Amino acid sequence: LLTVNYKTPLKVITANPVPYRSLHPYKVLTSPYFMQNEDPDKHFISGYKGHVPRVQFLLGSSYPTITNCALIEFNQMGNKSKCLTGNSVSEGETLPRIRHIYPSEMGMMPQYTGHIPGHKYQFGHTFGHLTHDALGMSTIKKQAMD
């Protein structure tokens, strides 16, 4: 094997060494969401695995360029929504009642393919009967009805 013998500690070359100053000093960066749109650092670094809003609509550039454009577009959309939300409801005012399109006490809508709580071990009845008040009754209460 090749061996190298270093003599430690190293010898001092100059009496007054000049401190190193980086050409690009470290900057404390804020989140890209809160940076100004003109800031050149308003982007995510390549390899970032988190969600970047509005990036799915942009293609054909480097990742920092795409995320910069997406963040600027997202901020512009946020500014528009702030203008729209200026109309607030006063304290004494009541909101209109929300109308239900499909009554919840009649069971699930036909052709519904999503999750129905407590439906896993239920069988022998129609879909409407098994899903009647799916959110209100427990499986034991449903079995006791039969």
Automatic annotation (TrEMBL):
UniProt keyword Cytoplasm, yes or no: yes
Highest taxon of source: Eukaryota
Its biological purpose: Microtubule inner protein (MIP) part of the dynein-decorated doublet microtubules (DMTs) in cilia axoneme, which is required for motile cilia beating.
Protein name: Ciliary microtubule inner protein 2B
Family of this protein: Belongs to the CIMIP2 family.
Stored InterPro entries: CMI2A-C-like_dom (IPR018902)
GO terms for cellular component: axoneme; microtubule cytoskeleton
Species of origin: Scyliorhinus torazame
A Pfam family of this chain: CMI2B-like
Domain Ciliary microtubule inner protein 2A-C-like span(s) in chain numbering: 43-74, 107-134
Keywords, comma-separated and alphabetical: Cell projection, Cytoplasm, Cytoskeleton
Annotated localization: Cytoplasm, Cytoskeleton, Cilium axoneme
UniProt entry tagged with the keyword Cytoplasm: yes
